[in-house]
């Protein structure tokens, strides 16, 4: 079972990208993003790209097809230890060195893919502006360039290069509030061809790890709340647990706007608690500070100033708190 499946899914030969008929320019950046979303979900394609971060470059290959209403996809890391992710309908399997392969019940890979590829554009329209930035060339093809900018300025933005024919994303730059890139997804080659679907059909007959049955996670009632959130962020989970390495008990809430997410952790202060710290590494920010006898920590894909404001808006109920 631990044997990786790259060889099984090797394409012998693929034609060059299909030459779709040229279309009239879209009426708006939002309409173009809807076309991008539909293309990424429905086309049969192979996309080779690099993920560029401050101190690393990661080459990857992603194949995707939609067959009988089910998504089949295969992501392969092309350098370092062999790693891959396989999606077969509502199941996603992960193969990582040093770990037993496992499968979870999900319709979305947890993997380094441009987050905008499978995001609800209608929801984002409420708190992001979609701005046409003209045309440019990327991965050897002409592209429409679109900026996705937050209306409130309290989070990061994206700059997208979308192929004028296929509508697939050829490049996605994550930008901080000063317009500096934090990371980049850049396509180096791509193919749109039914043969990709033919190859991915083999996933139907391959034996993958059994689905891990996760116990239901009850949504704990917590005696604290957040008085300020960037527009569009909503709570998607909350619980009590112990940290894996230290066994330190914490309470947490996770928030998302469909494009970015962050979590808030509350724990009792101890001798190891730092009065205040702020760290940003790439897209990820960690801000923690001491509030009376509690340590409040915000971790996620938001700017440092936003993380600080979220943390400082946490209030505890007068009746007391169950926070350990």
UniProtKB/TrEMBL annotation:
One GO process term, biological-process aspect: regulation of polysaccharide biosynthetic process
Subcellular location: Periplasm
Main location: periplasm
Molecular function as annotated in GO: antisigma factor binding
Keyword match Nucleus: no
Every MucB/RseB N-terminal domain range: 28-198
Pfam families: MucB_RseB, MucB_RseB_C
UniProt entry tagged with the keyword DNA damage: no
Alphabetized UniProt keyword annotations: Periplasm, Signal
Signal peptide, first to last residue: 1-22
One GO CC term on file: outer membrane-bounded periplasmic space
Domain MucB/RseB C-terminal stretches: 219-314
Record-linked Gene3D superfamilies: Lipoprotein localisation LolA/LolB/LppX, MucB/RseB, C-terminal domain
Family: Belongs to the RseB family.
Name of this chain's protein: Sigma-E factor regulatory protein RseB
Lineage: Bacteria, Pseudomonadati, Pseudomonadota, Gammaproteobacteria, Vibrionales
């Amino acid at each position: 079972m631990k044997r990786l499946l790259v060889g099984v899914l090797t394409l012998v030969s693929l034609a060059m990208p299909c030459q779709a008929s040229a279309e009239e320019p879209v009426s708006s950046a939002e309409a173009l993003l809807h076309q991008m979303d539909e293309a990424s979900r429905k086309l049969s394609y192979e996309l080779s790209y690099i993920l560029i971060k401050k101190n690393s470059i990661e080459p990857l290959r992603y194949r995707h097809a939609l067959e009988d209403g089910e998504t089949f996809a295969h992501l392969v890391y092309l350098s370092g230890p062999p790693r891959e992710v396989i999606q077969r309908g509502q199941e996603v399997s992960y193969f990582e060195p040093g770990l037993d392969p496992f499968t979870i019940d999900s319709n979305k890979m947890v993997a380094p893919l441009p987050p905008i590829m499978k995001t609800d554009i209608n929801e984002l329209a409420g708190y992001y502006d979609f701005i046409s930035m003209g045309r440019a060339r990327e991965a050897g093809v002409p592209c429409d360039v679109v900026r996705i900018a937050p209306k409130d300025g309290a989070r990061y933005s994206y700059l997208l290069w979308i192929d004028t024919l296929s509508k697939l994303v050829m490049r996605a730059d994550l930008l901080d509030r000063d317009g500096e890139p934090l990371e980049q997804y850049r396509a180096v080659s791509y193919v749109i061809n039914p043969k990709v679907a033919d190859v991915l059909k083999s996933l139907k007959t391959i034996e993958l790890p059994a689905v891990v049955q996760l116990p239901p996670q009850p949504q704990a009632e917590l005696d604290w709340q957040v008085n300020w959130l960037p527009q569009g962020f909503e709570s998607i989970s909350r619980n009590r647990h112990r940290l894996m390495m230290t066994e330190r008990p914490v309470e947490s809430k996770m928030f998302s706007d469909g494009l970015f997410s962050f979590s808030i952790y509350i724990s009792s202060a101890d001798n190891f608690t730092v009065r205040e710290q702020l760290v940003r590494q790439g897209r990820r920010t960690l801000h923690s500070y001491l509030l009376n006898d509690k340590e409040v920590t915000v971790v996620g894909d938001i700017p440092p100033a936003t993380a600080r404001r979220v943390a400082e808006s946490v209030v505890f109920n007068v009746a007391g708190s169950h926070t350990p």
